[in-house]
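Subject: sequence -> structure tokens, single chain

Hey, anyone have a minute? Need the predicted structure for the following. Not urgent.
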Amino acid sequence: MFGTGADVVYPKENSRLADQILSVGRALISEFPMGTFARPQNFPIPNRIISEICFGVLVVEAAEYSGTRITARCALEQSRDVFAVPGNVTNKNSWGPNTLIKQGAKLVATWEDVCEELPADVRLALTPETGAESPGAQTASLFQEPSLSPHEKKIYKVLKADEPMHLDQIIEKLEPELSSSEIFTARFELELAGKVKQPPGKNFVRSFSLMCF
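Reply:
Had a minute. Here:
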């Protein structure tokens, strides 16, 4: 869902992600005319559609004034389920989920907390067939590492979702295992894939804020 025309990818660093979405037969959706460029006032507008087409909205982090908060509000107005992952109270991005939990959103620690609230037919489609589970399977956490290359996995492992880490700290922690150039390359790939984001000042955090399902 775009805050620009469907032919204008913003930020431009997301062009690769847009190509990947199209390559697997998915769609880029926008209610703005083709050629519409990025304007701050455009971006909150599609949020009501994002929440409308979902069973529910899961908020992992959201500042007090953020698009994620707007989407959660739209979901409530549309009688959609709202879930939230509690965060560190000293992190401004935890304000959204923590406040939503206080207001009655469903607290989430594992994927089962969300799955059990889904419609029966959806839950059945997501449930592995009998015997498909490996012996001793454990409860899956929302924060399990996604599929990454070995270098990306090392960087992702030292990062947190609620505490920015400076690039120099990342290099210092991984210096015995990876060279600076390997760290720069892997970090860039993580950022392009949307798995890591960069707050101001060469700081990096895991990039999970809101999920719709």
